[in-house]
């Protein structure tokens, strides 16, 4: 009897390993589309980079946390000014989590339309009902101001 239980356990472990292997293989073979890099800061000022998907929806740029327990979400809630690298360019935003069911559904649908099969695969593993959409509002970066006298002395470039 102990031998048959060992055989079942071995079969189960092989099955789990095969499923994990197929998921990893699928993840490497599928083009996951646009990936952005979000930089958040903790209370001590240390920077953390997280790779994420983004979508333009409802006249704004959005990210999605899989759950309220995501570490990067906790950091941006404490320090909402974030950096986002998109298409090789750095952008500065104020990040605001939105806890509204209609927004969650809209952002989930927009991400599903943009990312297709990879989003569906991940959606089967993680319940989207607990996802948190994050709205990104561009920060204004102040340009150094020059005095009118200095502006008059500066030659213009062609």
Written overview of the protein:
With 158 residues, this protein is an alpha+beta fold. It is 42% helix and 27% strand. It has helices at 2-29, 71-78, 101-115, 117-125, 148-153, and strands at 36-41, 47-52, 55-57, 60-65, 81-86, 89-97, 132-138. Strands 2-1-5-6-7-4-3 form a 7-stranded antiparallel sheet, sandwiched between helices. It starts with a helix and ends in a 5-residue tail after the last helix.
Question: For this structure, what is the CATH homologous superfamily of the largest domain?
Answer: Electron Transport, Fmn-binding Protein, Chain A
What is the count of helical runs?
5
Gross CATH architecture of the largest domain: Roll
Overall tally of domains: 2
Order of secondary-structure elements: HEEEEHEEHHEH
Largest sheet: 7 strands, antiparallel
| Model regions low in confidence, pLDDT < 50 over at least 5 residues | 150-158
CATH topology of the largest domain: Pnp Oxidase, Chain A
Query: Which CATH class of the largest domain applies here?
Result: Mainly Beta
Q: How would you summarize this macromolecular structure in one to three sentences?
A:
The chain has helices spanning about 1-30, 70-80, 100-115, 115-125, 150-155; strands spanning about 35-40, 45-50, 55, 60-65, 80-85, 90-95, 130-140.
